[in-house]
Input
Amino acid sequence: MEAHAAPVLLLSAPRTSTAELIARAAAWRGYDVTDRATGAAGRRVYWYGGPRAAARHAGPLGLGLLEPGDDWLTCVPRPLLRRGVRLTTLGEARKLRERVFVKPPSAKIDSLPAAVHEDGTGLPAGLDGSTPVLVSGVVEFAAEYRLFVLDGEAVTGSRYAVHGRLDPAPLDAGSRAFARTVLDATAVGLPSAVCLDIGRLDDGEWAVVEANMAWFAHCYAAEPDRVLDTVLRAAGPIAAVADRDRPYLSGPAAAGTGNCEGPSEPKATGGVSVGASSVEA
Output
């Protein structure tokens, strides 16, 4: 590794609005910002972008990509969820005869978008029945919020939707307070750098939506510098990944799956969890 070369922030192309914002923040700190991996090998490389491109670059560039375990949401205490959630297979979900919200727990599958289904009969037939899915009771969120979490603390965040429509705005006191409650109860089962989505229901109560990898999450109205702090921890050199975070490494570098007991337990694959929101990550 080049000892004196500037670190690299590698972005997937085309760049999103969030990528542009954190690119400016990284350049101000002296990072080389690029969407080309050529010349990055042997340097300290950090990543922001989609999971497919991340998987291609992780091995050659020595990236350690952190993401929550597939089953994290199933371990959140029921009072913080306000609905039932379980990790199952697509084959089992097809047998359901009640209205449910279904989504893949890990990378997005084009033929299986996160959506509410009247029952399991409408789920795509072309996918293997062993495909893992998260199945949730249906709840209606009046407003949804994103928190960028570093070492168990929400360092920045934003409202991102109102009644399912994109509507970014700063965090309010209620969202900050509920996020603190959620993190006090669940941060031990999350990587040290992660995105947490929460929401206020139509009845005024609060609920967890899902957890996501920070390196592929829109910042909306969050502070770009603090978003960058979270991204740099969540997707940087694998040699710098702390022991407590190694169970949350994605892909072939994973040590196993996160679960209700926290990072000391084995992890199979990482991924995002399920909520009833249709707003894109």
Notes: Residues 253-258, 263-281 have pLDDT under 50 and may be disordered.
